[in-house]
Amino acid sequence: MTERLYYDDAYLTQFDATVLECVERDGAQHVRLDRSAFYPTSGGQPYDTGDLGGARVLDVYVDEAGEVWHALDRPLDVGAAVHGRIDWPRRFDHMQQHAADHMIASALWRLLGGVTIGLHISHDASTIDVAMPEGVTRISPEDIRRVEDDVNARVQRDVPVRCWFPDADELKTLPLRKPPTVESHVRIVAIGEDEMVACGGTHPATAGQLGVVKILGVAPARGKMRVSFIAGMRALNDYRACFEHAHAAANLLSTSPENLAAHVAAMQEALKSAGAELNRLRRDAAVAVLTEALEDAPRLESGAAVLAHMVPGDANLAKEIASRLIKRPGLVALLGAETGEGQAAFVFARSQDVDVHMGQLLSQAAKPLGGKGGGRPDFAQGGGPAAILDAARGILGA
Q1: Which of 110, 160, 254, 303 has the fewest beta carbons under 10 Å from its own?
Q2: Using the 8-state DSSP alphabet, how is residue 184 labeled?
Q3: Same domain, 35 and 77
Q4: Are residues 132 and 222 in the same domain?
Q5: Tens-of-pLDDT digits for all 398 residues of the chain?
Q6: Distance from C-alpha of 45 to C-alpha of 343, rounded to nearest angstrom
Q7: Which residues of 36-71 are buried (b: 16+ CB within 10 A; e: fewer)?
Q8: Do 130 and 198 belong together in one domain?
């Protein structure tokens, strides 16, 4: 069985070992050593990378027998003495994220009764899934701040982090946050005086090495509560990006970062009002143009005028215009609004005194051209090629 050196020293970045086995699988060389400092993927923590005997480490994993394997980009000779080097920035980042997981889980348990059931450390943010009392899947911003403050208070106090393998008698006496998932060779991680749980991951020696822990969000996930977080340099980089973007946006708007939200809200309200005024002007202009066009509009045998036009704006505006036009008697309004690439949205409407089924007319005109549409006798909507407008006019004989 491979001796796992990271258990005794998470800060070990170089080591010497002997190659016990090398086999080719799935286009990579898989190597087993007598001892290794490379962490294999487990417990939600990703594997270490680096180099081994001059080969690049692509993956590290544990097989069903508990053996540690290293997937490499080239083979190593069985029996050869090799030197391994761990990618330290990646390892230390994972140590920070994993310790932050423990501390957030501890705070959620102590403050809110939440039980953590899973961890996932990715390249950007890390997440933990938590079973909350009464199936709660969200907590308030105030509770998020409580948890965050609790964790960072312990980070600032630089509480110690201890990892060890207790014997069976000692294990029975330990105040673990939750029972171990294995029955033997149980490794315990304790952070300060109020967090203690079984864990095989790598962790810093003290909580102060996390720097800062930031909860990014809380959301439902498969019936549980998922907490996203970052720690260490990830948190600093996130703050730096937010700082730069906030100041850049504030400068563009000639305001300060603290007033940015209020400034944007005022702009949104102004934009909403301007949009409504623009739609009103477009609607009034289109109605005026179409009203003028009534004088020369073709008519049905019943005497009803047929207005078939493309209007500016979108389908909603076409719907508003049609609704206004058909308040007049004796009118059929076949309106379209361009949606791009020869396509359009259509609104077909008629006055109450006109005996033409708009839903049937739109469907009959649209289907042969690959469009869709239908609706009530007096009002229908659909979409498809712009040629539908001419097809509908042709069906009416207008």
Answers
A1: 254
A2: S
A3: yes
A4: yes
A5: 899 999 999 999 999 999 999 999 988 999 999 999 999 999 999 999 999 999 999 999 999 999 999 999 999 999 999 999 999 999 999 999 999 999 999 999 999 999 999 899 998 999 999 999 999 999 999 999 999 999 999 999 999 999 999 999 999 999 999 999 888 889 999 999 999 999 999 999 999 999 999 999 999 999 999 999 999 999 999 999 999 999 999 999 999 999 999 999 999 999 999 988 988 888 888 788 888 888 888 999 889 999 999 988 788 888 988 998 999 999 999 999 999 899 999 999 999 999 999 999 999 999 999 999 999 999 999 999 999 999 999 999 87
A6: 51
A7: bbbbbeebbbbbbbbbbbebebebbebeeeeebbbb
A8: yes
Q: Give the structural domain span for 130.
A: 92-240
Bridge pairing between strands 14-25 and 28-33: antiparallel
Residues contacting 193, CB < 8 A, separation 6+: 159
Q: Which amino acid is located at 86 in the chain? A: I
Strand order in the sheet with 161-164: 161-164, 188-191, 195-198
Distance CA 55, CA 369 (A): 62
Q: Which of 47, 28, 26, 27 is nearest to 36 (CA)?
A: 47
